[in-house]
Predict the structure.
Amino acid sequence: MAVLKVLVIDDEPGIRSGVSRILNTFHVTYPFMDEDYTFEVTEAATGEDGIAILEREMPDILLLDNKLPGIQGVDVLEYIRKRNYDIVVAMITSYASLDVAIRATRDGAIDFIPKPFTPQELKSSIENITKQLYLRRITHKMKQEGKKIRYQFLSVLSHELKAPLNALEGYLRMMQEKQAGEMIDDYTTPIERSLQRIQGMRNLIMDLLDFTKIRLERKEEKIQEVNLEEVASAAIVTVQPYAIQMDVTISLDIRSGVVIMADPDDMEIVFNNLISNAVKYNKIGGKAEITIDSSDSEAILIISDTGIGITKNDTENLFAEFVRIKNEKTRNISGSGLGLSIVKKVVELYHGTINVESTPDVGTVFTIRLPKKPMTIT
Amino acid sequence: MKKSDFTILVADDDPDYLFQTVFNLEKAGYKTMAVESQAEAESVIARFKPSLAIFDLMMENDDSGFILCYKIKRKYPEVPVILATAVSHETGLTFSLDSEQEKSWIRADRYLEKGIRPEQLDQEIMKLLKL
């Protein structure tokens, strides 16, 4: 049971006591609200008194008469608007003056209660206001959380971007001060590591571009028929040099040709990330298998490898941003920690699902299901 | 005692930062033990008492460094600990060991920003080892 504070500012005592009487026994329920709302009413006879109470009590709801002895209702409204107070205001007005109504609405009043009103009229207005208040506060809360997540993302990102710069700076200083010796050969490790960090940073920037692309670029006109076999084959060609280096065999098994409606760039992101992971986290001489299949309504992509695998614990966080599974086996594998979070975002954009099953030291299987039919991408 | 009588445990999940720190410490004359994770550092602490420890704050956990400070101080209260991070640089989050309140929960003897000069690090270590 939550209590909402109601302030009623009206110069007519009858209206004030009527509001108090009606609302003190009233409660509002709403299917998706966590709890019932009840009301606690405070009264003021003038705008000046009202503002004083308002400053002290910070009500949730204000019922405001426009015609008051001193300052007018619209002045109170403006006072609230200027200070950005989170108060829902409804005007109680005896005559429906269009002029006042427009000004009040512009200044933030969300409802009008005609005077005189029946208990039922007041109750239904209050019910509406309560729902609006609830939704407004929920939205505000979600926006705050969104901001927090964005801030976390940025601070981790800046860490990820600065780490390679710090490493490079350290190595360059080492060389500048000839700390390891006079000969260039004394610096083989620093030079090799510097080049690797540069490559890592380049990959991070590429992933970051993908990441912002899927977040910002949602153009319906880019949706077209995409042959998944073609996208998979292209991704295999891209990864091939690395696979040769790792002696990993990549095979493609088309059980049924699948054409889906999608942005080809999105599909490329999915295949590139998963196939390169299947090679990167594999064993020397291992296998990576890509299977494309379909049901009546879905395209099914299975990417399996014979690699190092992931423990049950680690799979839980696998799709989060900047999560890299750190252990003895992944120590020398570089990655941005964004790849799988990007894949998951893309899959969800298409209302699909991604699943992972893995056994450490045996291998990992990613299964993606994407609806074949065109639909709105959100 | 000479510097080579001291073994410094360094834990950092950035292999390059680790390499550079160890390189500088050895050049300064210390013996070193390098580990790349909180877990490895914990297993070293369990069976070995270093002369001094340098921990990175964020490793596999965001608070790995704090946890390691706490654990090593519980086992070897006399071993000096340096917490090295780039965290305030990157997040705007600042903390130091200047107030009693901070000292009470950060069990480190020195808190250093990453990227300090090798000579500066050596001086801090010499102070802590009373050299």
Q: What stands out?
A: The beta strands of chain B are 7-11, 31-35, 52-56, 81-85, 110-113. Chain B touches chain A through 21 residues (CB under 8 Å). The first strand of chain B starts at residue 7 and ends at 11.
